[in-house]
Design a protein that fits this description.
Elements (H helix, E strand, L loop, with lengths): L3 H15 L13 H18 L9 H12 L14 H9 L6 E5 L2 E5 L6
Antiparallel strand pairs: 1-2
Amino acid sequence: MRNLADIVTNYLAAALWTNEMDEFSAVCDIDTDTKAEATVHCQRFLKEADSLLTEEWTDEQIGHDLWLTRGGHGAGFWDRNKPNAKEISEIASKNEFHGLVFEADGVVYIDGDEPKL
């Protein structure tokens, strides 16, 4: 059974890391609506990819790789020597995006990431 909260936390941690904000901000600094949108993305992905995500895939890897693959960061699911990596990458890439991660008044936001709730 997957832990959605862990996947979302690692998805958002990867967002901070890829934008070099992880030294200044933490997942707890991310806007509530942004967290809700990230949860929707992770849920949609899991709905489609769940049968391919064998026990060898950790929740941490899933969240991290989903952010990297969706954002076109040149790394992601396909980088790991794990079952179904190519197929999982294809599912994650269907909803590619280029969200802007930024901070305003101590709160972190991701703009340009569908859907708006």
